[in-house]
Design goal:
55% helix; 259 residues; alpha+beta; 11 helices; 12% strand
């Protein structure tokens, strides 16, 4: 049963994060929200790419998982990609979305190697697990929430809404990080002098790539009207009145790359 944060709290939380100049997801802060929202025993973060070992961490970092923490991590790295039902489902189907073990189709439950993982989950109080994955470049990143009680329909509906928020946040962070990599310290000073926010810089960078307001909205997972608001503020700060002038002026200032 949920005892923590609701939709409003998550909207405010993600909005605050989006206002920060983040170059990577603040996993520790997100994990704390997930733990409190779903009364979780632990939350695992992971990144998977075919042909590479599973990488990740289990929070809380000082949690013993009833003394099985090291074994759980070792099993996850060595066996999870081929044995964990949820991960196998994602790999085979490519259908990424919030999913708990209790809802995995039967064909993915009977697999060699999951017996040990299931036993470790039981003794550590993490039998029920729901994963919230999203693509990050060529990899799949995921937050997996674990607790003893199966997640209810209400829990899963909330997990879906949180998943969409986190997916949008991840796209924003990666877009901002990519924009930063394309500029040097002097350009960063120019952006500061022009008073562009991280979100405005991301929108301007995507605009310079020829994306429409609608495409930018989809890339950053925000409303199209919000993109227009950001563009209006960019135009005002750059002293221009249209998108072409904005891109050309931003290029002269070194805020975006030349087309």
């Amino acid at each position: 049963m949920r005892t923590g944060y609701d939709d409003r709290a998550w909207l405010e939380f993600v909005a605050e994060l989006m206002a920060e100049p983040l170059t990577e997801l603040p996993e520790d802060r997100i994990v704390l929200m997930l733990q409190d929202t779903f009364d979780a025993v632990g939350v695992a973060t992971s990144e998977f790419m075919p042909g590479r070992p599973l990488a990740g961490e289990i929070y809380p970092l000082d949690g013993s998982m009833d003394g099985f923490r090291d074994q759980i991590i070792e099993w996850g790295v060595a066996a999870a990609p081929r044995s964990h039902p949820v991960l196998r489902y994602y790999i085979v189907t490519g259908d990424l979305g919030p999913l708990q073990i209790a809802d995995v189709p039967e064909d993915f439950l009977d697999c060699d190697g999951y017996g040990e993982g299931n036993a470790l989950a039981r003794v550590s109080g993490m039998t029920a697990q729901v994963a919230m994955p999203f693509r990050a470049g060529g990899a799949v990143r995921s937050f997996t929430i674990a607790r003893p009680a199966v997640f209810t329909r209400e829990d899963m509906a909330l997990a879906g809404r949180i998943w969409r928020l986190l997916s949008g946040l991840d796209r924003q962070v990666r877009a901002y990080s990519a924009a930063l990599r394309s500029i040097d310290a002097a350009t960063a000073d120019v952006a500061s002098a022009v008073r562009l926010t991280p979100r405005e810089r991301s929108v301007l960078a995507l605009l310079s790539q020829g994306l429409t307001a609608g495409a930018i909205a989809r890339r950053l997972d925000i409303a199209e009207r919000t993109v227009h608001k950001h563009l209006e503020r960019c135009y005002a700060k750059l002293g221009v009145t249209d998108r072409l002038s904005a891109v050309l002026h931003a290029q002269r200032l070194g805020l975006v790359g030349a087309a």
